[in-house]
């Protein structure tokens, strides 16, 4: 997957975030010519630069995707853009909807327009399972961002730039994940606050999220949505597993209580990654689903199944966490080990 970045200049929006910084790290393991970190927080940029030990291919650009002119300058002479900048906390977006729209919708529009203006080769945009049949502000803004990315065929003309989106589930260990919160609560002696133990979620690691983005970049022909097949767990089982592993890792002897606090604003009981209406246009691989654009437009007539290697027509009607077999406790613990072993949690 990393061969596609050889001698390329790659810009990562939100490049100091949990996912963005991992994209940056993995790009530096390829033969990329230059890796540009575009983000708002100069302190996080300083910390990331220190962690990466001053790789000469790195460029740190302080800027906000809301600032179109700054973004356009940052993209000059770049080849590929990974768009990971977003407001992603559900409750925060519920309480600050205007800000969510400015970043997730208008910011994505700026990314698209600047990519066209700079003749970028590829843009891979991060989306979320909450964009599928959304019930909260964050999901609605990410659905609009998806639609903007998919509708670029109406604006493309003779421009070469290709766009696609990837839908993530809950990314373990990211700043939007509940796992770091559970660990902090356990270290303080509890209680661990759980919204609803029977609530189900899709889960993936940060490395799996980045792997999906790189695969999408290699497979994309333009205007698709890529969805990794992900395991499902209940929040209750996740909390119990985090408690058990954290107590063992840090030698915590006292009992940790669990406190049920109820669903927060905008949350739903189960998540969806693929809707019934999207399944008709979806292809399936052993590791992912690919939703092709559902539009009769001349530039998309060659988006046949043969365009994507090792695919078959998707047979499912919907991909929901409610219908998937839930992970066993041992499987959850194995999935969590990478998070607990990371330096951030030590």
Structure overview:
The protein is α/β, with parallel strands linked by helices. 36% of the residues lie in helices and 20% in strands. It has a single domain, classed as 3-Layer(aba) Sandwich (Rossmann fold), CATH 3.40.50.720. A 10-stranded mixed β-sheet has the order 3-2-1-4-5-6-10-15-14-16, sandwiched between helices. β5, α6 (137-150) and β6 form a beta-alpha-beta unit. α1 (18-28) packs across α8 and α9 packs across α11 (329-340). The model has no long low-confidence stretch (mean pLDDT 90).
In short:
With 346 residues, this protein is of the alpha/beta class. It has helices at residues 18-28, 42-51, 68-74, 90-95, 97-117, 137-150, 179-187, 206-219, 235-250, 276-279, 329-340; strands at 9-13, 34-39, 58-62, 80-83, 122-128, 162-168, 170-172, 192-194, 200-205, 225-228, 232-234, 258-260, 272-274, 282-284, 288-291, 312-313, 319-320.
